[in-house]
Write a structure and sequence with these properties.
By secondary structure, the chain is α+β, with helices and mostly antiparallel strands. The protein contains 13 helices and 30 strands. Strand 6 and strand 7 form a beta hairpin. It is flat, with a radius of gyration of 33 Å.
């Protein structure tokens, strides 16, 4: 800590001024002035003396999207001695229908050497029932510094467009409306991009504009690649030097064989015919002339490509080879329409929004375990009970011997209670359950799926339990279930260690705990669609190690059903839109699901589908635009957290894959 010399000087000045004021007239006025000056000096000195400062930035430009994961940047500046502690982010959640509340805490160990500046990023899920979040630095059970961020309930339906450029301007024409309360376009520098793919959850498209080079960290590069693999959109403009396109990161994304800058003196009829005439005469325009190993040229002028698209897994990369800020394009009225076409592809392939399982998880987790003895235990209980009742009745007929039965009666009751207690402990230990429902969203032609999993942990016994998850790919958040107050428990997520535990050292007995995790997972299912007139054919190949069950193909009120697709199995599904027999009936489909095994597993599948089709989910609306494939599975590519090797795990998985139909064929 710094010395208190500045504080001593302030106090000395205060005493001198007070002494002078007592020797002259108007000492009351001078005293007030002295106190005001002393207070200001004391505050300034105290502020300058703080050795540890913390600066917070939530989202981008302070903007965030409710219902999405959002990066929180925490910048520490330490001018005092070294500090080792824990960075904690607390998100208190207020339920809608219950008085009880819960809190999610994200915990990350940090180390701040003396005279250092360090930046940490934590991704948090901003649910609609979170009013604020609190950030603390705790060391040796003492809070060193604490700040609070109040959240405003802003909703952005279509996501943000994130622009990386030096001027932080130039893309206002992409905003939906000039009077919109929340801007659609937000700006960032390279060092502000998230280090994890989940940080792009609220981002619809990422635009790398006039940066001369792409100096991204290895974490940022990996995050963007994973984000692209699950459907992200990256747009590269022509602004910037030659070195921008020769970085290792962009060379992996853009398989360029040839790139040079040329000047065109052309009418650019390809642009004017599609998007409208220019407002001024055409001048000499700089264009990047390129040749690609693969990729689709959407617009070209002669032999020079102007707009190129490259599919990367399930995402897309666009390259604009001309600078639309040049005089010929600067005030061009067709520019917004050109960009609308680039972003339209993203609109049409959006899957069902995340969080659809919130309502399912709140009501669809009946206890799957066994809370009672088996048949043998019941028989033993009846025999003991009959023996006890018979003995008591026999003793009751002889009054002289009635007193002798008091001791035997007490011993019998204690013995029966002891046996029942021991039997109950065995039942509880054997029925600890980690129940999970995973919904996998996968785009056509990709092998990675974004998965949201709803995990219920039930522990009949009171004992410490620690759940482990993959800290590199999994992001965990607490979830409130208003219909089940016992589900409300404070959750602590240790980000670096990949562990979850609750605030109490022991799990309360007979209690449920519910949390949600989101993961990028491999899901190997090949789906090829072929549409001719009013007949749609889909070829499927299951490359997973587990079978797919109760497959359902849906489009515009018509359906095709398949009971099972084995591992490495292939099949074809056909939809004939003319036939009335192919009309979809949810009741018939649910009957097929229940016929597999009319147990709690089938009931859970029925509940999930009903919630998605009839109530909360936009599945019905999605099937009017896409041919949607649904498939259930019980195997899982390592998505269930481990619970100390105790208890048993149970999984129900649902795959949702929208298939884009070639409209020219229908």
């Amino acid at each position: 800590m710094q010395d208190d010399s500045s504080l001593k000087k302030c106090l000395t000045k205060l005493l001198i001024i007070s002494k002078v004021s007592s020797l002259v007239r108007g000492r009351a006025i001078i005293t007030r002035m002295a106190l005001t000056m002393a207070t200001f000096l004391l505050f300034s000195a105290a502020k300058a003396a703080l050795p540890l400062q913390m600066k917070l930035e939530l989202g981008f430009e302070g903007r965030y999207r409710i219902g999405s994961w959002t990066p929180l940047r925490v910048l520490f500046e330490n001018q005092g001695p070294s500090v080792k502690g824990t960075l904690m982010v607390k998100l208190p959640q207020k339920p809608y229908f219950e008085k009880a509340s819960a809190e999610t805490v994200y915990s990350l160990p940090i180390s701040l050497p003396s005279s250092s500046r360090k930046l940490y990023q934590i991704n948090v899920l901003l649910e609609s029932n979170i009013d604020s979040l609190e950030v603390l630095l705790v060391s040796n059970e003492k809070t060193l510094i604490k700040k609070k961020i109040e959240l405003e309930p802003f909703y952005q339906k279509n996501g943000f467009i994130l622009v990386v450029n030096r001027s932080h301007s130039g893309f206002s024409f992409l905003n939906l409306r000039a009077t919109q309360k929340i801007r659609r376009v937000i700006y960032a520098d390279l060092d502000e991009l998230p280090n994890e793919w989940i940080g792009y959850d609220a981002i619809r498209a990422l635009i790398l504009d006039d940066i001369t080079s792409v100096e991204l960290t290895s974490f940022q590069q990996r995050a963007i690649k994973i984000w692209l693999s699950t459907g992200g959109t990256l747009i590269l403009t022509a602004r910037g030097g030659y070195g921008k396109f020769k970085t290792s990161f962009l060379l992996n994304l853009l398989p360029l064989e040839f790139l040079e800058k040329i000047h065109l003196e052309s009418s650019f009829s390809s642009l004017q015919d599609k998007y409208g005439a220019f407002d001024r005469g055409i001048q000499r325009v700089e264009v990047w002339n390129s040749r690609w190993q693969k990729g689709d040229i959407l617009i070209k002028e002669g032999d020079v490509p102007l707009v190129i698209r490259l599919d990367r897994d399930q995402g897309r990369v666009f390259f604009l080879t001309f600078d639309f800020f040049q005089p010929s394009f600067k005030n061009w009225s067709g520019l917004p329409h050109l960009w609308a076409d680039l972003l339209k592809e993203e609109d049409s392939l959006l899957p069902i929004s995340w969080g659809i399982g919130d309502f399912i998880a709140a009501s669809s987790f009946p206890w799957q375990g066994k809370l009672w003895p088996g048949r043998g235990g019941i028989v033993v209980f009846l025999l003991v009970y009959l023996l006890f009742v018979g003995f008591f009745c026999w003793q009751g007929t002889n009054r002289r011997l009635f007193r002798r039965t008091e001791i035997s009666l007490a011993l019998t009751i204690l013995g029966f209670i002891g046996i029942s207690y021991l039997l109950g402990l065995k039942i509880r230990e054997n029925n600890t359950l980690l129940r999970q429902v995973s919904i996998c969203y996968q785009r056509q032609g990709g092998f990675l799926a974004r998965t949201e999993s709803y995990n219920v942990f039930f522990s009949p016994a009171s004992r410490p339990v620690e759940l482990k998850f993959n800290e590199k790919n999994s992001f965990v958040s607490a979830l409130l279930a208003p219909r089940h107050p016992r589900l409300l428990r404070d959750l602590v997520v240790h980000l670096e260690a990949g562990k979850i535990h609750w605030s109490s050292p022991f799990i309360p007995p007979w209690s449920f705990h519910l949390f949600r995790s989101e993961t990028i997972l491999p899901f190997s299912l090949e789906a090829k669609i072929n549409a001719q007139k009013e007949v749609i054919g889909v070829s499927l190949k299951n490359l997973n190690s587990f079978s797919l069950q109760d497959l359902l193909l849906l489009y515009d009120g018509h359906s095709a059903f398949l009971k099972e697709l084995a591992p490495s199995g292939e099949t074809d599904l056909t939809l004939n839109l003319k036939e009335k027999d192919s009309s979809f009936s949810s009741s018939k489909y649910l009957q097929e699901v229940m016929l597999r095994s009319p147990d709690s597993e089938a009931k859970l599948r029925r509940e999930i589908f009903q919630q998605m089709w009839d109530f909360e989910g936009p599945l019905k609306e999605l099937t009017t635009r896409f041919c949607v494939l649904l498939a259930w599975f019980e195997g899982s590519p390592q998505v269930v957290p481990a619970a100390d090797g105790q208890g048993r795990n149970s999984l129900t998985g649902l795959l949702i894959m929208p298939l884009k139909i070639p409209q020219s064929e229908l």
